[in-house]
């Protein structure tokens, strides 16, 4: 019989943080690439982001929800980046943009943006599919 208390909130790691080199172009005073700090989020936070990226589509009297996947992923990335502070007004001003999402698009090259997106998906548990997890549990 298992111990249910192991699932109690006080016994679970609530937030995962990690650092990753997203771009070698951002360097410290010693010339070393600066790591970005990322955090995981709860499904509750994810749901808010997902819902904010949905639009109602009414077609022939039927209403469906359509999720803008680009908008959703961008908001997921913005919410997961702890450092650099993408909401910092001076940082945004230095790139001539308003908004964290616009800042990311201006700061990063396409490959760097893809790397960041991949790291954010990993830290939030999107890197494994259900079949992989089932196989891990079996072994």
Task: Write structural notes for this entry.
It is a single chain. This protein is α+β, with helices and mostly antiparallel strands. 43% of the residues lie in helices and 17% in strands. Helix 2 packs across helix 5 (110-123). The protein is flat and about 55 Å long. The mean pLDDT is 87.
Gist of the model:
The chain has 139 residues and is an alpha+beta fold.
- β-strand number: 5
Classification by helices and strands = alpha+beta
Give start-end ranges of low-pLDDT stretches.
none
CATH architecture descriptor of the domain at 16-41 and 78-138: 2-Layer Sandwich
Please provide the ordered H/E string of secondary-structure elements.
EEHEEHEHHHH
Helix count from the secondary structure assignment: 6
Largest sheet: 3 strands, antiparallel
Q: State the CATH topology of the domain at 16-41 and 78-138.
A: rbstp2171
Principal-axes geometry comes out as flat
Level-1 CATH class name of the domain at 16-41 and 78-138: Alpha Beta
Helix content: 40-55%
């Amino acid at each position: 019989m298992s111990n249910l208390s192991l699932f109690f909130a006080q016994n679970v790691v609530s937030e995962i943080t990690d650092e990753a080199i997203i771009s070698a172009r951002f360097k410290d005073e010693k010339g070393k690439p600066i790591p970005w700090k990322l955090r995981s989020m709860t499904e509750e936070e994810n749901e808010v982001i997902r819902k904010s990226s949905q639009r109602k589509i009414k077609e022939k009297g039927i209403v469906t929800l359509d999720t803008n996947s680009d908008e959703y992923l961008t908001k997921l990335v913005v919410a997961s980046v702890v450092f650099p502070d993408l909401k910092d007004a001076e940082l945004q001003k230095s790139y001539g943009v308003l908004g964290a999402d616009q800042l990311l698009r201006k700061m990063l090259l396409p490959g760097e943006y893809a790397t960041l997106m991949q790291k954010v998906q990993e830290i939030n548990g999107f890197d494994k599919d259900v079949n992989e997890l089932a196989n891990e549990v079996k072994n």
